[in-house]
Amino acid sequence: MSDQMKPSNPEQSVWDYLVNELRFWSKDKGEPPVPAQNQEKGAFPWLSLAALVLALSAQLTLEPSPNRTPWPGVVLYSGAAVCLVLAVIQKEWRLILHKPEVFEPIQPRLRVEFLLAGVLLSLIAFFLFGSGEFNILNLSVWLLAIACLLIAFWPRNENKSIGLKAFWQQAWKAGIKIHIGRWTVIVLAAMAVILFFNFSRLDSVPPEMLSDQAEKLLDINDILNGQRPVYFPRNTGREVIHFYLTAAYMAIFNLDVSFLNLKAVAVFANLLTLFFIYLLGREFGNKWVGLGAAVLAGMAYWPLLFTRLALRIPYYPLFVAPVMYFMLRGLRRQRMDDILLAGLFLGLGLHGYTPFRIVPIFVLIGMLIYALHKPGKKRWLVSVFILALITFISLVVFIPLLRYWLANPDLFAYRAFSRLTGMEAGFQQSPLVIFAQNFWKASVMFFWDNGVIWAHSVPGRPALDLVTGALYFLGITGLLVRYIRERSWMDLFLLVSIPMLLMPSILSLAYPGENPSLNRTAGAVVPVFVVIGGALEAFIRTLKERLDGKIGQFAMIFVVVILLVWSAANNYDLVFNQYYKIYLASSWNTSEIGRVAEFFTNSLGSPESTYVVGYPHWVDSRLVAINAGYPGHDFAIFPEQIPETASNPEPKLFFLNVNDGPNMQLLLVTYADGVLSQYDSAVENKDFMIFFVPPAQGAQP
């Protein structure tokens, strides 16, 4: 370890002093970790194996069943925790050591001219965004302001500078070398699994759009037709990144405004999230922790469902992951470039999905955790500087929304405050009591109940599958034990991140029935699966270190295959079987109606002569139009408007609910030559009525 990496200041931090007495393992107090090569070979890791088996058995008892009760799971998980603690004491179970930290505090080098230019351009951009629209001028000024501020603080390393010509000469001389080793093969296999789970049956799972998707596609259609808002006011307001990325994808590849294309962009966002989960796991532990976290998250039912729903939900974890990664790495390495990138992604995340607004508070708490664990006034001042810099950069990136917020405070804050406060519905009991109940429900959703929203979950089941639920419990227990023993700020940072990222769901105080919800907790996917990846790596390494030669190798491979295949099979059933059936039964068959409408408009009729007769709690007529190929059009017609359609000589087609007898009678009275028929849907209980009106005599069909 270099001198820069070694702590030379013996001064005790505030946090060390406060929690020192909690280190109740006096035998190991102050002892350095035992290197892997000194581990006892040949001693089977019974305690670690018992902990895993008990945890899997516990989660098995918590899976949905008619007479499910939590108590067997509580008892078995308690036994798993005891075994794991004993395994730690016996030095049998060890989480991977953290990478060494740079002790010397960060020393920023400032380019004053770029800082002044960035501040001035930021102020100009703030006023230019008063229009509430993106345009060439304000977008250029804003991006230039961000670039100037990043350059102003970006570290300079003259020793590593190399000219472009010299670079190409070196590259040409070295040639192209391809080496395919064990790691490469494993990574390629992992990528294949991830891509399969993310793209398999993307067109049919989920099979239908909801009104939320109609709102999204209408906003995207607005962009394609020339609108450029910084915030979409439709449906109580939404941030814009999802819409602009999807519109760009559709425009570049000349694609239809459709549900499938909406899903495709969401899947790419999820894949990018998995990449950052890998990087975070590697930063927190090693490449195996990162790979395990990414693979298990890549086939997990929780993120797959909210990704395939194709709303803005994936943009919560998408930006949480790089914020956590660059912040953790920047604090560990004391590198200015990482700190700047953390601020950049923090600001971008605020343009993604409303629940991300909790992340600035988490960053503040994370910096406080770091500062409390570091001794010395100088370190505290550096921590304050880092926090101020992250805040400043993110605020500049946030400028378009900040300007909109100040101009429209009620609309911008409505989504969050309608759940947090009693502005829509009064509190059912004391807010503190509701908060405590919500906190508990959200904390145990990984093992017990992930909520009742069928659109992005299988109601009433745990948020994690059987294998990842057990590994998550072991990972959390192991981190808690290690923190008490070693008091690493990185362990506490990861532990605290989970409840903080659950807060958008927990803080639904006015509507506690909406907690837990897998959409508002989506950011927690990132640390949860890093914890899971750490637990998997620790158990596999325990087998490898404790068992000799080929036996250890075989045991390690056998356990990895069993756990991964078990998890994959469980998640496949949840996504492509259970969720698909629930969604199909719960949603309306607007795609089926849309296909009939498309056939009619392409043959006899037109969009203007196609109607969906309004009926309570039936199909969204906008979705029918989108499925028919007419985004932005609405086929809706109210019953009182039906007689007015008689003046149109074109052939007409009306869609009605099978229970809408009065309007069927009205159509028969209005059009004596009309033909009423029932369409036999491929989905049970989703039949609908079709009323066809031939063209008026003498009219051109």
Can you summarize the main beta sheet? 5 strands, mixed
**Lateral strand order in the biggest sheet:** 2-1-3-5-4
Count the beta strands.
Answer: 5
Distance from N terminus to C terminus (CA atoms, Å) equals 84 Å
| Helix amount | 55-70%
Q: Name the average pLDDT.
A: 90
Output the number of helix runs. 26
Strands, helices and their partners?
Blueprint: H1 14-19, H2 46-62, H3 71-89, H4 112-128, H5 136-153, H6 164-174, H7 182-199, H8 211-224, H9 241-252, H10 259-284, H11 287-298, H12 301-308, H13 315-333, H14 336-349, H15 359-372, H16 377-397, H17 399-407, H18 409-420, H19 431-443, H20 466-486, H21 489-506, H22 525-546, H23 549-586, H24 590-603, E1 610-613, H25 621-627, E2 636-637, E3 652-657, H26 661-670, E4 675-679, E5 688-693
Parallel strand pairs: 1-2, 1-3
Antiparallel strand pairs: 3-5, 4-5
Summarize the structure.
This protein is mostly helical and 701 residues long.
Describe the structure.
With 701 residues, the protein is mainly α. Among the domains are: 110-154; 192-210 and 269-586, no CATH class; 590-693. Helix content is 58%, strand content 3%. It is built from 26 helices and 5 strands. It has helices at residues 14-19, 46-62, 71-89, 112-128, 136-153, 164-174, 182-199, 211-224, 241-252, 259-284, 287-298, 301-308, 315-333, 336-349, 359-372, 377-397, 399-407, 409-420, 431-443, 466-486, 489-506, 525-546, 549-586, 590-603, 621-627, 661-670; strands spanning 610-613, 636-637, 652-657, 675-679, 688-693. Strands 2-1-3-5-4 form a 5-stranded mixed sheet, with helices on both faces. 43% of the residues are buried.
